[in-house]
Amino acid sequence: MNHSKYLVEFDSIDWELIAEGVTEKCIVQNNQKLRLVEFSSGFFEENWCSKGHIGYVLSGQMNLHFRDEIVHFKLGNALWIEAGIANEHKMRLIDNQTVCLLLFESLTD
After folding, report:
1. Residue 64 to residues 23, 38, 56, 82, 91: CA-CA distances in angstroms?
2. CATH number for the domain formed by residue range(s) 16-99
3. pTM, entire model
4. What is the sign of the dihedral through the CA atoms of 59, 101, 81 and 97?
C-alpha cells in the first residue's frame, strides 16, 4: 500500500453497508469526504434529500427526481446539486440496476 497523502487507494478500503442497497468506501481528510458509493437492488430513497452533492457516475444509470423535474444520469455524467430545500431530490435506480458514484463532500456545511 502506498502511504502518500496524495493517493487514495480504494482497493485497500473495505466496502461498508450504510443502508439497504447502499455500500460505500469512504475517506475523510481536512473536513472533506471522498466516497465511492454503490446503489443496488433494494435501495429506495423514501425522504427528500436537501444535502448538496458533487459527483461523477462511474457505472449504471439513475434518475434524480427534483420537485419540478426528473434528470437522467448515465455513465460519464457529473452531478452538481447545491444544498437546500430548493434543490431537494430523491434518487431512483433504473430497472433496479447497480449505480456507482464518486462523491465529493464538504464536512463544514
Report:
1. 19, 15, 13, 14, 5
2. 2.60.120.10
3. 0.88
4. positive
Q: What residues pair up with 35 in beta bridges, in sequence order?
A: 26, 103
Distance of CA 81 to the CA centre of its chain: 11
Where are the chain's structural domains?
Answer: 16-99
* Tens-binned pLDDT, residue by residue, of the chain (109 aa): 456 778 889 999 999 999 999 999 999 988 899 999 999 988 999 999 999 999 999 999 999 999 999 999 999 999 999 999 999 999 999 988 899 999 998 887 5
C-alpha grid cell, residue 19: 443502508
Contact yes or no for 27/13 (Cβ under 8 A): yes
Q: Write the CB contacts of 7 (distance below 8 Å, at least 6 apart in sequence).
A: none
Total residue count of the chain as it appears in this document: 109
